[in-house]
Amino acid sequence: MDAEELRRFRRSLLAWYDRAARDLPWRRTHDPYRIWISEIMLQQTTVVAVIPYFERFLARFPTVQDLAQAEEEQVLRLWEGLGYYSRARNLHRAARVVVEQHAGEFPRGVETLHDLPGVGRYTAGAIASFAFDERAPIVEANTQRLYCRLLGYASDPKSAEGQRTLWQFAEDVLPSKQAGRFNQALMELGATVCTPKSPDCESCPVKAHCRALAAGLQHAIPKPAVRPETTDVTHAAAAIRHDGRWLLRQCGAEERWAGLWDFPRIELAPADAPHSKGALTAARTLRARRAVEQGVARLTGLSIEAGDLLHQLRHTVTRYRIRLLCFHGAIRATDVAPTASEEARIRWVHPDEFSALPLSMTGRKLAEVVQGL
DNA sequence: AAAGCGTGGTC
DNA sequence: TGACCAAGCTT
What we know:
Layout: H1 3-20, H2 32-42, H3 47-60, H4 64-69, H5 72-79, H6 86-101, H7 110-114, H8 121-132, H9 141-151, H10 160-173, H11 179-192, H12 211-214, E1 231-242, E2 245-250, E3 261-262, E4 265-267, H13 282-300, E5 304-317, E6 320-331, H14 340-345, E7 346-349, H15 361-371
Parallel strand pairs: 1-6
Antiparallel strand pairs: 1-2, 1-4, 2-3, 2-7, 5-6
Helix pairs in contact: 1-11, 2-3, 2-8, 8-11, 9-11
The protein binds a DNA duplex through helix 2, helix 3, helix 6, helix 8 and helix 9.
C-alpha cells in the first residue's frame, strides 16, 4: 500500500472499531499489570474461556506485588483448567523480576518487556502498545490471518520469510499515534470479521484493500498449517486411600502437568496396555496392575497392591489421546519409607482438601470419581 | 528450528 | 466423532 492508501485503510479501520469493538475487561484499563495478565491468559486460549479466570485472578492478586509474594502452588491453583501451565509458572517468575529488578514498576519498552519470562515478541508488543501506546507492531493468530489476506500472501506464514513479511507489514501499517487502539482494531477485525472459515468480506471495512478478496482467494489464504497426527497412549493410575485420605503426587518438572497434583500415574508399555479400541483382556489387566505397582513404587517409594479397575476415562491433550485405567490400590506395608525427594512430592489428601491443590486434568476427573466412594 | 505444551468450543 | 482452531513461548 502506498502512503495514501495506508491513510484510508487506517481511517476506515478505526471508524469501524469505534462502533464494533467488543467490551472486554482488559480493554477498560491501561494498567500494564492487568494487560499483561490478560495477554498471558489469552495465549492460545479463547476470550470466552479467559474472562472468568481473569476476573478471579485479579481479585486474588490485584497487584504485581501480591502475585510476587504468592506461593507458586497458589498461582497454579487459579490457573487450574486453563491449560499450558508453564504460562502460570513464568507469570509468577516474571512478577518477582518486576518487583526485584524494576522496583515493582512495570517496565516500558518492547525489549525490556521481551526479557520477562513468558513474554515473547507478540506479548511484548501488545503490552507496550496497549498500556503505554508505544508504536510496537504485533503478529498473532488474528492479525497473521488478516495480514496474509490483505497482502495476498499465499505461502506458509510460519516460514522465516513469512514471518519477516508479516512483521514488516505490522510495523508499516501502524500509525504514529493511537498505536494501541489500532492494534486492538486489527485483532478485532481478525477475530470477528476476517475469521478462519467463513470470513464476512461483505461487511469488512477494509475490503477495498484486500488482495486475497480481489483474487477470490480469501478461503485459500492463509495456507493451512500441517498438524501432527495424534498418538494413542494408555496410562494407569492408582487410587489409594488410607485413613480417609487419598495418595496424590505432584507432577515433576519434566512431566506433563508439571507442578500440578494427580493420582500416581504412569504410561503403560504397549504390551501391558489394551489395544487402542479393543477390550481390556484379563492377561493385560494383570500386567497393567503389575506395572502400576512398580510405577507407584518408583514414583512414591511406597509398596502398594493394585486391585480391581476403578474407572476408565479418555482425554486428549496436544497430540496424545490418553486412555487412563485407574485401579484401586492398597498400601502393602507401612514400614516402607519414601526418599526425601519422593516425600516432597506426595501428599495424603482428604476429599475436602482437593480444591486447595492445583489438580491436573486426570487428577481432577479421578478426584470427582473418588468423592463418591 | 522443530517439537512440546492443555483445554474447550464449533462445525 | 474428529478435525480444526484459539491474543505464543520455550528449549
